[in-house]
Amino acid sequence: MFISFEGIDGSGKSTQLTLLREVLEDRGLRTLTVREPGATVLSEEIRSILLSNKQSITSTAELLLFNAARAQLVERVIVPALERREIVLCDRYSDSTTAYQGYGRQLDLGEVRTCNNIATRGIMPRVTFFIDVPYEAAQQRMSFHTTSGGPDRMERSGPEFFDRVRAGYLEIAAAEPHRFHVIDGVRDRDVIHADIVAVVTAALSTL
């Protein structure tokens, strides 16, 4: 089973992924946690390029780099794990690219989806959680966890960009209600976690 977590930076998606993994492992289920971009040597190197404030990257190059990292991740990590019948928990996946590069950077959505399809080879999550948090609330959360390096290149994109990203996620969710679950991310962490566990438990019961 393949499960992805989406949301703007500071939404709490990574925390919720970790909490879900702990529950699944306590139930004796084999899980694999990966992040995008990342989880392979090549993908982690691409991640460093994409997030570096030293880089000036065009929107199209950004799109292609994200999908290059994704292609490596899918073929080398995700597909083998699914073949082993593990539960794959992914911190971001192709929906991030649709939301960030398609809606946020305002690239052609058809071209974005074509690139995503090439990279994913049709491998899509069974369940996707979008942890929905307004930009201002996400920024407040991030301020409590700021490192000496400050915001990365993507995080510096500004409120108008992230408003478009959030709107994009909501459009994706409206188009794919069978897969996408919009979670109100401003609530208590444990309440959010309980909602996520309920959805996953129901999905597992149908396997």
Structural key phrases:
207 residues, alpha/beta, Rossmann fold, five-stranded parallel sheet, 8 helices, 5 strands
Would you write up a description of this structure?
The chain is α/β, with parallel strands linked by helices and 207 residues long. It has one domain: Rossmann fold. The protein has 8 helices and 5 strands. It has helices at residues 13-26, 41-51, 59-83, 94-104, 109-120, 135-143, 159-175, 189-204, and strands at residues 2-6, 31-35, 87-91, 127-132, 180-184. Strands 2-3-1-4-5 form a 5-stranded parallel β-sheet, with helices on both faces. Helix 1 packs across helix 8 (189-204) and helix 4 packs antiparallel against helix 5. The longest helix is centred in the middle third of the chain and has 25 residues, at 59-83. The model has no long low-confidence stretch (mean pLDDT 94).
Average pLDDT, to the nearest integer? 94
Rg on CA atoms, Å = 16 Å
Main sheet record? 5 strands, parallel
Number of helices: 8
- Envelope shape: globular
Tally the beta strands: 5
Write the CATH architecture name. 3-Layer(aba) Sandwich
Q: What is the CA–CA distance across the termini?
A: 9 Å
User: Which percent range fits the helix content?
Assistant: 55-70%
The stretches of 5 or more residues where confidence is low (pLDDT under 50) are none
Strand content: 5-15%
CATH-derived topology: Rossmann fold
Give the SSE string: EHEHHEHHEHHEH
In short:
The protein has helices spanning 13-26, 41-51, 59-83, 94-104, 109-120, 135-143, 159-175, 189-204; strands at residues 2-6, 31-35, 87-91, 127-132, 180-184. The protein has 207 residues and is α/β, with parallel strands linked by helices.
